From TrEMBL, chain A:
Compartment(s) of residence: Golgi apparatus membrane
Protein name: Ras-related protein Rab-36
Necessary cofactors: Mg(2+)
Bilayer topology: Lipid-anchor
Organism, scientific name: Vombatus ursinus (Common wombat)
InterPro entries: P-loop_NTPase, Rab, Small_GTP-bd, Small_GTPase
Automatic annotation (TrEMBL), chain B:
Native source organism of the sequence: Vombatus ursinus (Common wombat)
Gene encoding the protein: RILPL2
Any one GO cellular component localisation term in the record: cytosol
Compartments, as annotated in UniProt: Cell projection, Cilium; Cytoplasm, Cytoskeleton, Microtubule organizing center, Centrosome; Cytoplasm, Cytosol
Gene3D superfamilies listed in its UniProt record: 1.20.58.1770, 6.10.230.10
Compositional bias segments (type: Basic and acidic residues): 1-12
InterPro entries assigned to the protein according to its UniProt record, in alphabetical order: DZIP_RILPL, RH1, RH2, RILP_dimer
Ranges of Acidic residues composition bias in the record: 13-26
Name under which the protein is recorded: RILP-like protein 2
Bias (Polar residues) ranges: 190-199
Length: 277, 219
């Protein structure tokens, strides 16, 4: 995905304009994993460099950036409900199939820096795959969802992940495996499914979460975790390209730079991103 | 693109009785009606009543007369709008009614025959489907059309979100109203057409947009 950003120099600093975010979208401490047995990072604090950069407002374009999250999984597992619970704090018992793709934007303030996620919801129906798959490209986060009460859907997440990864540079996206409808089961049945899921998550190099859109359990914690990991990665990528920004600051009053979003850092900071250095 | 058959509207045997609701209370009666039952005829009745009352006010005074005339233009405009709305609404209701009738017929046909008509006569061969042109729910759009519509919708949704955010900035006093030199998120950074777009040409557009938006000068 080609992201375009418009930067206008004001006085000496880049100003990012965003209205204040709700209190529950402010993240100051690094959010914790769901289970240490399947998590992407064990540490419970921001990367030192990232923390420093945020304090000194050296995060460059991160505040202007919208990171892409795609949510995949079988029809009816609860993808739309999960997103709606988080973004609108609603739950609808009735089912309405998602047509093709849809998205929501969620704004955060992480370590004092504004940050946005664009969360793409997909249909999960075979007949829409050819449309939805075009939207997988450039995903910084891939979320594969399954229904905790329907074990078949767990197995299918492997295929969904493969579909999403085909559209992205290998290793460039964070992967999450999410079991939905946690309210529907409890006790040993839940534990057994979770164990299977944790096992699969490790195979997929994914972080595992159990959530319920109906009760709201873990939904906010989950997306907060997603946002923090994506944010930290974005800042680190930005820091790698630090020299470019020095130029932007010093020189032009208006600069436009483009970048192959998350792919850029994989290719190294030295000038592979067009229009930059 | 493909030629689309016109919607299968039945002719002749549409034998539904129209519910005629004549209110016999003279032109004033229209004002007492539920807005959802209003017909264009009622709008004309309202128009007559209002016009008559205006004439009555006018009397002899010149000053009042001019003001009433001005008011009259506005009322006429409002009535025209109402007329358009009512007509449009009635057309929609009529269309829905026809759809419903043809659906009913379809269901009856399926019930009595146990299978859809036509299938025995036509053998389309493998990888083809038979489309019943009278079925209002038949497939009508191509994948490409759906793709375009979705793309368009996503674009509009992102523009809406950006505009809402912008509005919030103004509301919270974050942007002084006369300031035109601030960074903002570009709406096109949000929605990404699935196909990767070419850079060069669009860069200019974004700048132009940025500044035209801020300074209120549309180019
Ligand atoms: N009990 C329960 N039902 C859920 C939950 N999440 C979704 N559902 C229901 O599952 C059905 C499918 O949900 P939806 O979000 O549309 O699935 P999608 O096709 O993956 O987008 C709907 O009827 C929802 O009400 C949940 O957390 N608990
Ligand atoms: Mg859905």
């Amino acid at each position: 995905m080609l992201k375009r950003m418009v930067l206008v120099r004001m006085e000496s600093n880049l100003m990012v304009l965003a209205p204040p975010v709700g209190r529950d979208r402010i993240i100051s401490d690094f959010p914790k994993w769901y289970t240490p047995e399947a998590c992407l990072q064990l540490k419970d604090h921001f990367h030192r460099q990232v923390r420093a950069a945020c304090q000194e407002q050296r995060t460059g374009t991160v505040g202007l950036k919208v990171s892409k999250v795609v949510v995949l999984g079988d029809l009816y597992v609860g993808k739309t409900s999960l997103i709606n619970r988080f973004c609108k704090d609603v739950f609808d018992r009735d089912y309405k199939a998602t047509i093709g793709v849809d998205f929501e934007i969620e704004r955060f303030q992480i370590a004092g820096v504004p940050y946005s996620l664009q969360i793409w919801d997909t249909a999960g129906q075979e007949k829409f795959k050819c449309i939805a798959s075009a939207y997988y490209r450039g995903a910084q986060v891939i979320i594969t969802a399954f229904d905790l009460a329907d074990i078949q859907t767990l197995g299918h997440t492997r295929q969904w992940l493969a579909d999403a990864q085909r559209e992205n540079e290998s290793g460039s996206s964070f992967v999450f495996l999410v079991g939905t409808k946690k309210d529907l089961l409890s006790g040993p049945a839940c534990e057994r499914t979770e164990m299977d899921a944790v096992h699969l998550a490790n195979e997929m190099q994914a972080e595992y979460w159990s959530v319920s859109a109906k009760t709201g359990e873990n939904v906010k914690a989950f997306f907060t975790r997603v946002a923090a990991l994506a944010f930290e990665q974005s800042v680190l990528q930005e820091l790698e390209k630090g020299s470019c920004h020095a130029q932007i600051r010093a020189g032009a009053s208006i600069s436009i730079r483009r970048e192959e979003s998350s792919v850029a850092s994989q290719e190294g900071a030295s000038g592979s991103s067009p229009g930059c250095c | 693109m493909e030629k689309k058959p016109s919607p299968g509207k039945e002719e002749g045997e549409g034998g539904e009785e129209e519910e005629e609701e004549e209110e016999e209370s003279g032109p004033e009666g229209a004002l007492g009606k539920s807005p959802f039952q209003l017909t264009a005829e009622d709008v004309y009745d309202i128009s007559y009543v209002v016009g008559r009352d205006l004439m009555a006010i006018t009397g002899d005074s010149r000053d009042v007369a001019t003001r009433v005339t001005q008011l009259q233009f506005k009322i006429v405009r409002i009535l025209e709008m109402l007329e358009a709305l009512v007509n449009d609404c009635n057309v929609t209701v009529e269309e829905l009614r026809m759809e419903r009738d043809s659906l009913r017929k379809e269901v009856e046909g399926l019930r009595s025959e146990g299978q859809p008509p036509n299938t025995e006569e036509v053998n389309p061969g493998t990888n083809k489907i038979v489309v019943d042109l009278t079925d209002p729910n038949r497939p009508r759009f191509t994948m490409q059309e759906l793709r375009d519509v979705l793309h368009e919708r996503n674009k509009l949704k992102s523009q809406l979100l950006v505009a809402q955010e912008e509005l919030q900035c103004y509301k919270s006093g974050l942007i002084p109203l006369n300031n035109s030199q601030l960074a903002r998120r570009d709406p096109q950074a949000l929605v990404t057409s699935p196909s990767s777009s070419k850079g060069g040409k669009q860069e200019k557009t974004i700048i132009r947009k940025l500044f035209s938006f801020r300074s209120g000068k549309r180019t």
